[in-house]
Write a structure and sequence with these properties.
The chain is of the alpha/beta class. The protein has 17 helices and eleven strands.
Length: 392
C-alpha cells in the first residue's frame, strides 16, 4: 500500500509552485486529479511547445480532467466533485479563484471539512497582497538575489527555482499536517503559503549573519576561502570545475597531502589558518593539480582521500551520472503521445510503500472516467454534461 493511499486531492494548480507540491504527494500515493482549462490546460504545458519537458517534469502520477470553470455547468461539476476529495489546491494569481466563486468560504459551504491549500506570491493580505509574483520575483523579495554573486558585483539571479518548488514542498508538508489534524478532529482548514515568506526558510543561514537585521549579509561568490571554492578542471569548458569544501583540519591535511605530499613541509601550509593567509599561492597550486584531471576524476581522487568535493554537474551530466543511474533515480517512462521519455526520479525513498513514477497525462485524458466515477453518472448523463459545455 502506498503511504498516502486514500488521500484524494483536487489539484487546480499551474506552472510550478502548486504542481511541485501535488506531484510530491502523488509520488507518495495520493490520488491527484488535476483540473485544467479546456483546450490549453495548465499554461506550463505550452512552455516551449505542447506538453513541454517543463510540464512533464512537474505533473507525473496525476490524472487530467478538463472543466470550463467560467461556465455555470463546469463550476457545478467541480463543486459536486469536491466532497469526494480531502484537499483542494490552487496557486492562481490574486483574485482569480474569487472571481470564479471557488474561494475557501464558498467551498466550505459544500464541503465543511475540506483542506483548502493555496500558494500566493505575497499572501492573501498585507501591502503586497495584490502584486503578481513568479519564482524569481519571490526570490528577490526574500533576499536570495542579495546574497548571490561576486562580492564586488551586482546581485545575481539564482539558478534554481526554489521560489516555486521550495514553496511547493513546504505546502506539501502543511497539507499533510492539516490532513493529520483532520484525521484526529474531523476538521478541515485553510492552508496558505506566501512565496516570499517560504523563501526565507532557505536563507536562514545567511540571515543569521545579519545579526537580527542589523547588518547586510555580504555576497561571497564562489568563496574567498581557498579551502571552500571552485577549481577548474580539464579540458577547461565552462562547467569543467570541481567544488572543494575542506572545512576541518583533517580535511585540509587530506587535501594538502593528496595534491602534493611535500606541502606538509611548507611553512605556508601547516594548517588551515596559514593556508588561508597564503590563499593566492594555494589557489595556484590546487589549480595546477585539478587541471591534470577532468572533473569526475578529480572528484573521485578527492573523495577517496575523504575530502568533500563534487564535480560541477550540468543538466546533461545529471542524466548520465553513474551514481544516479545505479540508484535508479533516472527514470524512463512511457508517455501516451511522446513514447519513452526520461525523467528525474523522486528523492524520497520508502522501504515499504514506494510508488512508481508515471508520465504526466495528456490534457483531459481522465475527464469522463473521473467525473462519472465521482458523481455516479450513467453514460447518458455524462454525454449530457459534455453537451452542456462543462468540459469545454
Amino acid at each position: 500500500m502506498a503511504a498516502l493511499d486514500g488521500l484524494r486531492i483536487l489539484d487546480m494548480t499551474q506552472y510550478e509552485a502548486g504542481p511541485s507540491c501535488t506531484q510530491a504527494l502523488a509520488w507518495l500515493g495520493a490520488d491527484v486529479v488535476k483540473i485544467e482549462r479546456p483546450g490549453t490546460g495548465d499554461p506550463g504545458r505550452g512552455v516551449g511547445g505542447g506538453d513541454s519537458e517543463y510540464f512533464l517534469m512537474w505533473n507525473s502520477n496525476k490524472k487530467s480532467v478538463t472543466l470550463a470553470l467560467e461556465t455555470e455547468a463546469g463550476r457545478d461539476v467541480l463543486m459536486k466533485m469536491l466532497p469526494h476529495y480531502d484537499v483542494f489546491v490552487e496557486n492562481y494569481g490574486p483574485g482569480v479563484v474569487e472571481k470564479l466563486g471557488l474561494d475557501y468560504e464558498e467551498m466550505k459551504k459544500v464541503h465543511p471539512s475540506v483542506i483548502y491549500a493555496r500558494v500566493k506570491g505575497f499572501g492573501s493580505y498585507g501591502p503586497y497582497s495584490d502584486y503578481k509574483c513568479f519564482d524569481m520575483v519571490a526570490q528577490a523579495a526574500a533576499g536570495a538575489f542579495s546574497i548571490t554573486g561576486e562580492a564586488d558585483g551586482p546581485p545575481m539571479r539564482p539558478g534554481t527555482t526554489v521560489g516555486d518548488t521550495g514553496t511547493g514542498m513546504q505546502l506539501g508538508i502543511a497539507i499533510l499536517a492539516a490532513y493529520v489534524h483532520r484525521l484526529k478532529t474531523g476538521e478541515g482548514q485553510l492552508v496558505e503559503l506566501s512565496m516570499q515568506e517560504a523563501m526565507t526558510y532557505y536563507l536562514r543561514t545567511a540571515v543569521a549573519e545579519s545579526r537580527g537585521g542589523n547588518r547586510v549579509t555580504p555576497r561571497t561568490g564562489n568563496g574567498a576561502n581557498p579551502l571552500m571554492t571552485l577549481y577548474p578542471c580539464k579540458p577547461g569548458g565552462p562547467n569543467d570545475h570541481i567544488f572543494v569544501m575542506a572545512v576541518t583540519p583533517r580535511m585540509w591535511h587530506n587535501l594538502r597531502d593528496t595534491i602534493d605530499p611535500a606541502l606538509k613541509d611548507d611553512e605556508r601550509f601547516q594548517d588551515a589558518g596559514t593556508a588561508i593567509a597564503n590563499a593566492d599561492a594555494l589557489r595556484e597550486i590546487i589549480t595546477g593539480w585539478t587541471m591534470q584531471y577532468d572533473k569526475h576524476e578529480a572528484m573521485e581522487r578527492l573523495a577517496a582521500a575523504d575530502v568533500p568535493a563534487s564535480a560541477v554537474m550540468d543538466t546533461v551530466d545529471i542524466f548520465h551520472d553513474k551514481h544516479l543511474v545505479e540508484r535508479g533515480f533516472i527514470k524512463e517512462v512511457e508517455h501516451d503521445e511522446r513514447g519513452p521519455i526520461r525523467l528525474l526520479g523522486q528523492p524520497i525513498r520508502l522501504s515499504e510503500s514506494q510508488v512508481e513514477i508515471e508520465a504526466a497525462a495528456p490534457l483531459g485524458k481522465h475527464t469522463g472516467d473521473v467525473v462519472a466515477a465521482d458523481l455516479g453518472l450513467s453514460d447518458e448523463e455524462l454525454q449530457a454534461l459534455r453537451e452542456s459545455g462543462a468540459f469545454g
